[in-house]
Design a protein that fits this description.
300 residues, mainly alpha, 0% strand, elongated, ZSWM6 protein
């Protein structure tokens, strides 16, 4: 419904287009499930949400509007000519939606719904097997999100109350790592921040421009899902530690990110334990750098 609202409110569309869409919507309103397009109707929009595995369009509020206006004036066959499919478009729209910067809503139910929607959509994306075309889309969108302006949750500057990107970044990291490790780490490290827990930056410190003003006292209780969010942040850090085993420079970078961004002593201690387990895994000699990371985190 939200997607179609964006389409029909487009001021540039012609009256005959609106009449055609109205007829189509009335037709679809009579069936229980929005039908798949057969590819022969050039004036019809591709049904992007239905292109994901069945059920992937559930609870995607605010996650699928972003590209509707960009696609609305192009016929469906145009995409197919460029070697794309409804599936690739659906995946791309999902990545754009997941990466949107959005403010954490008020209330326990609304905050839990934000987490649940994100996890459900990522779960459906994980059912899609990545081919070369999809990998290119992942790389392109990761770069766009890192370089993006205020719309991006992975941009350099975000609002202090912006919903964290830990879960989404962990998924991106896992998908990108075999194909572009540099981009994978850059994305995950950018997502490690949790600005709602940041204290005021000392006067004269201009080296951290993305740190907004200090947190108002008694602000934390409004984030009812904060403990869950911190657990997701910890999982992202642990995933990077595991992948960076044997790479001294990356391990040092991940350690620095953990020390800077994670504020929960219990999660830092868990990461110290994780680092020790990863360092002493298998029958080979222990990874000395990871053992140092474990010690540093344990002391912290």
């Amino acid at each position: 419904g939200a997607l179609w609202m964006c389409i029909v409110l487009n001021p540039h569309c012609k009256l005959e287009q609106k009449v055609s869409w109205l007829t189509q919507l009335k037709k679809w309103n009579g069936v229980d499930v929005c039908p798949w397009e057969d590819g022969n109707h050039g004036n019809e929009l591709p049904n992007l949400t239905n292109a994901l595995p069945q059920g992937a369009n559930a609870n995607q509020e605010n996650m699928v509007q972003c590209k509707s206006l960009e696609y609305q004036h192009l016929p469906a066959h145009k995409f197919l000519e460029e070697g794309e499919s409804y599936l690739t478009l659906a995946v791309e729209v999902a990545l754009i939606g997941l990466g949107q910067q959005r403010i954490m809503p008020d209330g326990l139910y609304a905050q839990e719904k934000v987490c649940r929607n994100e996890e459900q959509l990522i779960s459906k994306l994980q059912e899609v097997e990545l081919d070369d075309t999809l990998v290119k889309i992942f790389r392109k969108q990761a770069v766009f999100l890192l370089e993006g302006g205020p719309y991006s949750g992975l941009g350099e500057v975000i609002h202090q109350d912006s919903v964290p990107m830990h879960t989404f970044a962990k998924y991106l990291f896992t998908c990108l790592l075999p194909h572009d490790a540099e981009l994978a780490y850059k994305t995950a490290l950018r997502a490690m921040r949790l600005l709602v827990l940041e204290s005021m930056v000392p006067l004269g410190d201009t080296s951290r421009p993305h740190h907004i003003a200090s947190v108002v006292p008694n602000r934390y209780p409004r984030w009812f899902t904060l403990s869950h969010i911190e657990s997701q942040q910890c999982e992202l850090a642990s995933t990077m530690l595991t992948a960076a085993k044997g790479d001294v420079q990356r391990l040092e970078t991940v350690l620095e990110s953990i020390q800077k961004n994670i504020h929960s002593s219990s999660h830092i201690f868990k990461l110290a334990q994780d680092a020790f387990k990863i360092a002493t895994l298998m029958d080979s000699l222990p990874d000395i750098t990871l053992l140092k990371v474990s010690l540093e985190l344990g002391l912290q």
